[in-house]
Design brief:
Layout (H helix, E strand, L loop, with lengths): L1 H20 L3 H37 L1 H8 L2 H50 L7 H33 L8 H24 L4 H10 L1 H13 L6 H19 L2 H5 L1
Amino acid sequence: MLKEIVTAIQSYIKAHRFISKHELWKWILIPGILYTILFMVGMFFFWSSSADAVSYLSHRLGIDRWLHRQGSGILSFFFMMGGIMVQLILLLFYFSLFKYIFLIVGSPLFAYLSEKTEAIIEGREFPFSLRQLMKDIVRGIKLALRNTLWQTVYSISILILSFIPLVGWITPVIALLVECYYYGFSMLDYSCERHKLSPAASIEFIGKHKGLAIGNGILFYLMHLIPFVGWILAPSYAVVAATISLYHQHQDFES
């Protein structure tokens, strides 16, 4: 799996060169700017609301009053760290829902960009098919809804674990890896559909290549560490990188 993660990461470098060489910037910048605006507005409001939610929960459960009576600096530190972990889990859960909404809205462009990328790689003409595009969109929406359900189940389980002192400190890492996998899954599925894999076959295939999905998602999130530029480039770069990384797995599609 580690080798596949490295392959997925290297695919982002190849994606940048590919986009520059074939002048695909208009397919990168337009959805990227929209994504960035929604991302900034959503994160601002949710971070403040999640902090209020943690404070309200602590007050309702009487944790703050109990800590005050105990007068223990160590206990206060543990629960403060726990509160931060819970807030991070809530933030990741929100970002997950935001991501799937954006994937559903942007599925026409992402499906088109993935198909165009593979057509250029193979050096063939790119005939536009509205019927095929609509099939890609419907499939993308269905899988996005399916992944939303499963990731919600995992997120709730992780959120419960986050309340356990010490153990809860690693839950943001677990939540992030789950988030990376499901985002990369969505990016890889565009290629799977094009190679005539059914949704069930696509789930099985990507399950065997978890590293490609996780690696794709990791770079997508790392790009968010670069304000504005990274936010604009991340979504479409992920699509092109996923297409490039899976193109080299072509023989696996046929097996």
